[in-house]
Specification:
Layout lengths: L2 H10 L4 H12 L4 H33 L1 H25 L1 H9 L7 H10 L4 H23 L7
Helix pairs in contact: 1-2, 1-3, 2-3, 2-7, 3-4, 3-6, 3-7, 4-5, 4-6, 5-6, 5-7, 6-7
Length: about 150
């Protein structure tokens, strides 16, 4: 499997996303900055399409079939809404961009997609906002990885 495809797959995962994919692509796979950035951003955006389109259907199906999933989704959705409702009310659409663009744990495209679902943001509005956040996060992570930006 090519390093580009591996980078894409790493970026698509819910934990690492592009925060992990870009440094791995640059330092382990020795990809160019451009390739690392492009494959990481595309990989991170890819699952957003499916999350936004199918999360409601999948969660309803699983809730009907399993008490475990019913309780899990109750917990997950309540926790996410509790943690982000105030910020969403204040920032509206900018909330998704900011949430996704900050390259820290429990932020990113997966969390942004979950929030878009919970706050009823339609696909046509949520997808471009989340994609913009992913691109900004990609720039930040790339600059940090290259040592151009340092964190204190």
């Amino acid at each position: 499997m090519s390093y580009e495809l591996q980078t894409f797959i790493i970026a698509a995962t819910p934990i690492l996303e592009l925060r992990g994919a870009i440094p791995i692509a640059l330092f382990n796979y020795k990809l160019s900055v451009t390739s690392a950035f492009i494959f990481s951003v595309l990989g991170n955006i890819f699952p957003v399409i499916f999350i936004l389109l199918f999360l409601e259907k999948v969660s309803l199906f699983l809730r009907e079939k399993s008490k475990f999933f019913d309780k899990f989704f109750d917990w997950l959705f309540a926790r996410t809404k509790r943690n982000h409702q105030g910020k969403y009310d204040r920032l509206k659409d900018l909330f998704l961009v900011v949430l996704v663009s900050i390259p820290l744990p429990v932020t990113g495209a997966w969390t942004g997609s979950l929030c878009a679902f919970l706050f009823g943001i339609p696909f046509k509005r949520a997808f471009p906002l989340i994609s913009l956040g992913v691109v900004i996060a990609g720039v930040i992570v790339t600059l940090i990885s290259l040592g151009i930006i340092t964190l204190i």
